[in-house]
Amino acid sequence: MIYLTAITCLAVGVVVGVLFASKLNIGPSRLKELENQISTLKENHDEYRDSVSDHFSMTAELVQHMTESYKEVYQHLASGAQDLCSNEVASKLLPAETDAVFDPNGSTEETGGLIPPKDYATKQSPKQKGALSEEFGLERTKPVSEEEIPIQPAK
Question: Could you say which of 20, 72, 78, 123 would form a disulfide bridge with 94 (CB–CB 3.0 to 4.6 Å)?
């Protein structure tokens, strides 16, 4: 009796396995199709990555060119201000030195005490809510009960 049950379970398992495999449609042709699809997706991804790289390379070149053009315009304005305006006005409008605005090593003392803005707000205490908190600047109030609402007489 045990052998008959084991053979029946084996037969049922084989039938269920065959049905399950046929539903999944796993065969050599399906595997080849999936491999082709993966290789096509990899090629498309590589092309996309190359085009993104080319785009940002060109953008960097254009920004560099724009910076150089801006620098030339600024120098032209500075020299024009010195030639056409009095020395007081020219020194206030534009610095006479070349690359004065574009000098990345300039200290805050040389730039008139300008300090770049901070991307955070200072707090009085560590428990204080920061400026980016949802509760910043809001005070909690108690809910108003119906008894506290004054009743207006009908007109």
Answer: 78
